[in-house]
Amino acid sequence: MLKFSCPSCGAEIVFKSTASIYGICSYCKSTTVRHDLNLELYGKMSDLKEDLSPFCLGTKGFYKQQHFELIGRLRLKWENGFWNEWFVLLPNGLEAWLAEAMGFYMFSRPSNASNLPFASEVKIGEKYKFQNTIFQVEDIKEATCIGSEGELPFLAPVGRTITSIDLSSADGLSFANLEYEQASAQLTTKLTAKRLYLGEYLNFDDFNFSNLREIEGWRYDH
Fold it and tell me: What is the largest distance, in Å, between two alpha-carbon atoms of the chain?
């Protein structure tokens, strides 16, 4: 865990994950970039509008008997709606993500697979093999970051645009996600970044969550 003072207001900014480089001050909403033991002021983040997510920073749960904590969030918009991507802190320091969209929960980890296809090459219905599992392309969409909070392993300002490609296994239990970050002069990205995430679909009760956000009229049964 690393602690810094916000370059803007002086409040404490904590990075719980060694993978995190981007943090949002919970007091003044300044966005910062971590360079080893120094913080650079990057910009300002607007408050995220409330949604019906049961999660918040600090929500805890279990995945395959491993305890985890949600320490960052991306709020993404596409032409048919919104979804949240939560950055997960695992006890072994490995990066993981919990996505929630339309009542579905997807837990995944990044894969270091090589020779990933370019976004323009991928078509609906095509099949790809990742880590000995065959996945079929189900959905291709453009999405834009409309807000973020907490800490994240990459820069995620408002306006960050990606192409997100969802793939599912034949049994419908596992999924893959290909993410392509579009080149941006603001982020000094010269080439489109390609990332692969592999994981599985799970039910809310599978995680045994605690420290959930209080929503009036909702009751969480475990």
Answer: 51
